[in-house]
Amino acid sequence: MTTSSLPVAIIGAGPVGLAAAAQLLARGIEPLVLEAGPAVGHAVRAWSHVRMFSPWAFNTDAAARALLAAEGWTAPDPGHYPTGVELVADYLAPLAATAALRGRIRTGAKVSGVARRDLGRLHDGAGREATPFVLHVETCCGTEAIEARAVIDCSGTWNAPNPAGSHGMPAPGEARHAGRIAYGIPDILDAERMAYAGRTTLVVGAGHSAMNAVLDLAELAGEAPGTRILWAFRRPLGAVSFGGGARDGLARRGALGARAQALVESGAVTALAPFLIDRIAERDGALAVTGRQAAGTVTVGADRMIVAAGFRPDLSFLREVRLALDPAVEATPALAPLIDPNLHSCGTVRPHGEAELRQPEAGFYIAGMKSYGRAPTFLLATGHEQVRSIAAFLAGDLAAARRVELVLPETGVCSTERAAPACCAPAEAPVAAPVAAPVPVPVKAGGCCG
Ligand SMILES: Cc1cc2nc3c(=O)[nH]c(=O)nc-3n(C[C@H](O)[C@H](O)[C@H](O)COP(=O)(O)OP(=O)(O)OC[C@H]3O[C@@H](n4cnc5c(N)ncnc54)[C@H](O)[C@@H]3O)c2cc1C
């Protein structure tokens, strides 16, 4: 560690947090990764059974690969689609164990607050921009304060799933019946098989996670008689997008939607579309889910629910940071129009970097899955490009920060619904406003509970 600057704190040791650390090290900047879980890739481990729709070629970061290659790592087959467990075992865990990173990651370290030292959100203070950040970190030893010259929040959204309730709030009864409701993609075919075999499950959501859950339930139905699948959408079926199919630049992602659509069309899955959930109760030992359809209010029975309706960012520990977020998407105002599903259904987002992620709080960034706020189309490759650009900026290399070094695969979906930006237009290099490089602040060693 140099003595001329504090580390850059990275919140979260997921794929993007670890890539951020590798990118910073490549620029000679000291990273400190703070991970709430007991091991790196904590959120990915929760979906370890899910096979990714992007192959290895799109899932690793260049600076991370360089650290791994220096230790004799054999890169996985670029055409193979890893599961979550493979992403951890073959990439994230070896990366975290490299000599370069292993002393720079703290697990069991949950960030509970971020602020400028001695300055609340309201206080301008003299030289706010040159004042170090202070992070409050919950560890087994209690709350610790750690100082940093900059902060990259890569804490993802896995811990904040959207609820089933149609208004964006948990439906009345949703919390009370949480024991029968899974959020995300449960391990239907293995660890949690008994909970779904021979039962009726109501899946809520229209994205790739919901499709994965429906496909797993359909496979289970082929083996376990009596397994029934209800699938609730917010929109009428004609307005549901099942993805770009054969036009999708990621073949597996396209096939996922096509297979899910075929299940609906064959009647193997009962689509409730629209079905806007108002209440969840219990009747005769099963869930009674009341919602609105075109013809009026109906109540359907289900043994279990799987809510795969997307995620939202947890902003609770950022109350003292000056943030500018789009009021709908909860991404930065520069990024939101590129990804807002209200403006376009095109999942093809042009690559972007530091300029689009910059916050009013200089030196603070939200990157990775969380940077997309409530928008559903994030790709790891996008996150890697984000942190490459941020690291370049923090190192004062403004030209590299502005340069786009990524071409994303097309989704094959681009049906504009309103007057919208040309979402399928060829990628343009983002133009960053000219800004000064961040001012390094003096070092102060953080404490250690060990
Ligand atoms: C089921 C599923 C399948 C996906 N498949 C693909 C795919 O095929 N291709 C693709 O490109 N993308 C895919 N994604 C989207 C995205 O790339 C992944 O979600 C990816 O894991 C995001 O990486 P991340 O580092 O931003 O966040 P995460 O992987 O969520 O990592 C965030 C980390 O931060 C930690 N954390 C959270 N809060 C705190 C805190 N307060 N303090 C400290 N640490 C904290 C978490 O424990 C976690 O380890 C998929 C997502 C899901 C959910």
TrEMBL record:
It comes from the Bacteria. This is Flavoprotein. InterPro entries: Auxin_biosynth/cation_transpt (IPR050982), FAD/NAD-bd_sf (IPR036188). GO terms for molecular function: flavin adenine dinucleotide binding; monooxygenase activity. It holds the Pfam family Pyr_redox_3. PANTHER family: FLAVIN-BINDING MONOOXYGENASE-LIKE PROTEIN (AFU_ORTHOLOGUE AFUA_4G09220), FLAVIN-CONTAINING MONOOXYGENASE. Keywords: Oxidoreductase.
